[in-house]
Design brief:
Elements (H helix, E strand, L loop, with lengths): L2 H9 L15 E3 L4 E4 L6 E3 L4 E3 L8 E4 L4 E3 L2 E10 L5 E11 L3 E2 L2 E10 L2 E9 L14 E5 L2 E5 L5 E2 L5 E7 L2 E9 L5 E8 H4 L5 E8 L2 E11 L4
Parallel strand pairs: 2-8, 9-19, 10-19
Antiparallel strand pairs: 1-4, 3-6, 5-7, 7-8, 10-11, 11-17, 12-13, 12-18, 14-15, 15-16, 16-17, 18-19
Length: about 230
């Protein structure tokens, strides 16, 4: 508002905001999309800042839903921020908060990689679930194995349970034939085995990084590569 308008309004004892028609809404400023890791299975507390400016009203409050400091669940939540000036002009802006799934690290994870034949590699691992794990359900969760630069994800529902509590998969994923097995161990924990074509893992050195993710449980380690080809 021009200074002369303020002066005239003051002399006439008129509210300066009523001295002329304000039809311009505020400008709401919000952050870009925010991506965070979940802090627990419930999600993550996310703090952000939003503000508004107006051509007349010097102080325009902004209300956001959900508010800054709220607990955001896993997934994508759209935050809507609204500002209204004294003339009743309203403006809104939105942005997304993406909370990545909560991943529980294995309490223990040991892996071995063995070249059993010129064209086959076996990956064997044992693991124990972390204290915050709610258990694994291989028949209903995705299973992702990474060996060096090779990664394969077996879709949820692909592993089939037998009457001994073991889970098996055999088939092709992205054109690669593989077989996998997950079974509970008598002393606690689980064993994972996978047979892979050697060409999918080439080149292989003496050591290679291995990670295994089952649902929201995972572990990673470095495994020695053993050559045990019998003729």
């Amino acid at each position: 508002m021009a200074a002369t308008t303020w002066a005239i309004a003051a002399e006439l004892n008129i509210n300066p905001f009523l001295a002329f028609a304000d039809t311009e809404p505020p400008l709401v400023t919000v952050p870009g999309a925010i991506t965070v890791d979940a802090e627990s299975p419930a999600g993550a507390v996310v703090v952000f800042a939003a503000s508004a400016t107006d051509n007349v009203d010097p102080d325009v409050p902004v209300t956001c839903t959900p508010a800054s400091g709220s607990l955001f669940p896993v997934g994508t939540t759209t935050v809507r921020c609204t500002a209204t000036d004294e003339a009743g002009n309203m403006a809104t802006a939105t942005f997304d908060v993406v909370v990545l799934p909560f991943i529980v690290q294995f309490a223990a994870f040991v892996a071995e990689v063995e070249i059993e034949s010129p064209d086959e590699v076996e990956v064997k691992a044992t693991f124990r679930l972390g204290a915050m794990s709610d258990g694994i359900q291989p028949a209903r969760e995705t299973v992702t194995l990474r060996v060096g630069g090779f990664e394969v994800t077996i879709a949820a529902g692909s592993f089939v349970a037998d009457d001994k509590g073991r889970f098996r998969f055999k088939g092709a994923v992205n054109g690669i034939n593989l077989a996998g097995r997950i079974r509970p161990l008598k002393k606690g924990g689980f064993e994972f085995k996978a047979g892979l074509p050697r060409e999918a893992l080439m080149p292989l050195g003496t050591h290679v990084g291995v990670s295994l993710t089952i649902g929201d449980d995972m572990g990673a380690t470095t495994a020695a590569v053993d050559v045990n080809i019998t003729r």
